[in-house]
Amino acid sequence: MTPQKGFVRRILVEPPSLNNNTADAQRLEKCLLNELSTDYIRIPLPVLKKLPSNLRSWEFKAKAVLFKDRCSWILVDLLNPLSNRSVLGAAVDIGTTRIVVSLIDLETGFEIGQKGFDNPQAAIGPDVLARIHYSNQKLGQKSGQKLDQKFSQTMDQNTGLEELNSLVIDSVNFNISALCKEHGFQKEDVYLFTGAGNTAMTHLFLGIEPIEIIKEPYIPCVNIPDTQPSKNLALDINENGVAFLFPNIGSYFGGDLIAGILFSDLDQKQAPCIMVDVGTNAEIVVGNSDWLIACAGAAGPALEGGGSKMGMTAKPGVIDQVWIDPDSRDLMIHTIDEKKPVGICGSGMIDLAASLFLSKRIDIRGKFSRQACGKNLFEKDGINYFIIVDKNHSGTGENICLSQVDLNSLTSSKAAMYTILEVIVKNTAGLEFEDLEKFYIAGTFGSFINPVSAISIGMLPDIPLKTFEVLGNSSLGGAMELLKNPDAFERIIKIRQSITYIELNVNQEFMNMFSGAKFFPHTDSSRFPSLQNIS
User: Fold this and answer.
1) 57, 79, 101 - which closes a domain
2) What's the mean pLDDT in 266-272?
3) Residue 221 and residue 318 in one domain
4) Which run of H or of E encompasses 150?
């Protein structure tokens, strides 16, 4: 990207004269319309207030900070062209569990730095469902106090929503400021804010009531939020700054997925490709430049700790890789930051299941083999447990185990994942897995997944490994792309309009297909030719 094509443009306004006494604002407007090849631009009042003196002191040269909304371009601010102050943007992945902020130099498009932190809303509820319920609480309901009628009317507001909104806004403000200081900038240098999150997180970030999202017929308040003055959202950046939240498709397909499509260029591919983002839900998009089909389904709880007593999110000491020693056939592990093991995360769970299956410690039904597991298997309260790390080597002082209950949960998750893929690729799009040019794996979880392990347990299709491409944090990537390239705005709107969303819960074939996928790797072994030597 060249600077002149970005959101910061250096301009020269025609000076006034006796022969040209057009108002300063109109001459500025004419200059910007020509520069942007557009028909309309909004010039806000704060820019107009000092426009005459600024233009003359700058000899009618200026540095224009611009952005877009659905209707027009916006002149965010007009700056001294000789100023050496940087003009920055903040791109934010508003994740349910973790939030990541990236600082972008708007003139060069270069990323200055990133900062990730836990979403503080997790203290109120670990998932969006709990947070949405909490957001609907009134002050009187929370306190249990009896309020007189006048005071009750005054305080009749969604204080739960306000609390959740303040938590996320305050944490984002703090970390944007900290990131700026860390790299020698000021928060006032940030003019543009782009954020992408799921539908619920977008509502909570905007301070909009989200309760209808979880009530039949599951209707969001807004699908396409307008670009807002940053002050409207209490964002502590430049006073003239503006903020844009990526649009969502519906209750279960949010702006983070549209950001992912933008980041992967899925909307510009000629051959069909697929993007999968696995978290608490599995969100999937398949298509190309001509068509896009999307769906979402519950396929991730066991992979993020939500459906497993031993699963957890990634942090130091968590097992993230498991493999079979080729000589001893023992299971080997790796932990994050190489600390003593304290548990296992999603990528580690998939590796573990694959290693157990390939070493025949579990059978095709996902049941432990007592003979193959040996002394690592024990029974408690009628449930089998497999010891991954014994208490003498763990960071908790206790055995780190995989129970049959945990394994059953993982089996259901991998079966759901494969079935969702099969429904959308084969039944809906009319393709075969082999027709896919690229298989993009998105999200934090997707950054660490080993496709070989996922194929081995029948979670992902058995296609050439070169087809798979890890995108990393595609939600953040899409938010960053918009700051770097104004043309991305039109693509975002077009992507949203072109997606056909299907509901899996009304798909009659889903449960029949799901039953067949609850085996390792599948009841139909021909689907996984690379594993046919596994009996």
Assistant:
1) 79
2) 96
3) no
4) helix 149-154
